[in-house]
From TrEMBL:
UniProt-listed SMART domains: HTH_ARSR
Any matching Pfam family: HTH_5
InterPro entries (UniProt xref): ArsR-like_HTH, HTH_ArsR_DNA-bd_dom, HTH_MetalResp_TranReg, WH-like_DNA-bd_sf, WH_DNA-bd_sf
Protein name per the record: Predicted transcriptional regulator
PANTHER family given in the database record: TRANSCRIPTIONAL REGULATOR, ARSR FAMILY, TRANSCRIPTIONAL REPRESSOR SDPR
PROSITE patterns: HTH_ARSR_2
Domain HTH arsR-type, residue spans: 1-95
Keywords, sorted A to Z: DNA-binding, Transcription, Transcription regulation
Domain of life of the source: Bacteria
Molecular function terms from GO: DNA binding; DNA-binding transcription factor activity
Amino acid sequence: MQLDISDNSLPVYKALANPLRLKIIQILSHNKLNVKDIASELNVSNTITLKHLQILADAGIIAFEKSGHNKISALKVDNIYVRFPERIYPSFDVHETNIPVGHYTEFSVEPSCGLAGPNDYIGKVDNPAYFMDPKRIQAGMIWFSNGFIEYQSPNYLAQNEHLEMLDISVELGSEFPFSNNVWPSDITFYVNDVEIGTWTSEGDFSDTRGKYTPDWVPDNVNQYGTQKILRITDHGTYLDGQPFTPISLSDIDISSQTFKIRFAIKNDAANQGGCTIFGKGFGNYDQDINLKMFYS
């Protein structure tokens, strides 16, 4: 589950702000239980227990199941991430480009793989040939188990403009047939053929529906990813504001007419769990792949 700093996330924050409900989460992390068993563990009444369970269910943290005449509670969430607002650098001017996820310029992928548009899958899933289907430009979500997807963005920098920082923002997840909330995958970033670094996605999430994922997408497949912000500066690269790798702007050729951005699963990756890229109309962030060139 991924949260942000907005009113939409308040039910989850409120659900967690209670010691009894935190205890319930700890109990359910081991087993699915009925109300009576949970109440016994907490040493409180069934009525009070059910009230707290309902708050957790309304927040999407647990789910209720039926087992005969019993109402069973099950933990629904493995991890919760909180995304803080992106910091703004007003002292720099910026060239910004938004690249739809279907507008890739090169690819080499292996099944499981596929593309999804606003109304249906694009072509046949698990057939890489459809990655060249003309309708691919309508894709809002693409996924592959091995290989890479590469995009190009125009380089708008003028001769008198000095690049200070390069930001790439994208929503990513792992890839598992249908989904697997605990499925680590090492996704490697490249810019202009330079390997920037590798980030490990924790899973291919379907514990809750993506905020923007179309209704036609089944509940048991990729719903959302994790928004990652890669920032390359003249003193190193940062991921989500934290030091990532020593690669700096001086290591990258910025004189070409385009910037090439590649997302890859390397053959020697320790966690070959695939890659899902979410774009506008899918996932938890209604955005394409965003490239910002901060310059002075």
